[in-house]
Amino acid sequence: PEFPGGIDNFYNFFYKNFKKPEVPQLVGKIFIAFTVEIDGTLTDIRSLKDPGFGTGAEAVKVLQQSPNWIPGRKDGKKVRVYKSSGDVIGA
Is residue 28 packed enough to be buried (19+ CB in 10 Å), middle (13-18) or exposed (0-12)? Predict the structure, then answer.
């Protein structure tokens, strides 16, 4: 699966919509997991690990607002794909 326009567009979307808490020098990784359905919607979005202060919940909220992704394919057919990732947030 791919975010429309590629990974750089995903990061732009994410950071434009992510509201970082006002905690001095907050640095850490947020690990998120979700499933990209055959229609491109995201389901089962959850935070696996985060540095606290509501960052995981905020990341889930942002992904819930995501446009549909380009679904994964296997043998030419659209398939559901589980994805997980981690990204760094910095002060």
Answer: middle
Q: For residue range 15-66, what is the model confidence (pLDDT) as tens digits?
A: 999 999 999 889 999 999 999 999 999 999 999 999 999 999 999 999 999 9
Distance CA(36)–CA(80), nearest Å, equals 6
57: tokens are: 């919940």
Q: What share of the chain is helix, strand, coil (3-state, %, to 5)?
A: 25, 35, 40
- Distance set, CA 30 to CA 20, 40, 60, 72 (Å): 12, 22, 10, 23
Residues contacting residue 5 through CB under 8 Å, at least 6 positions apart: none
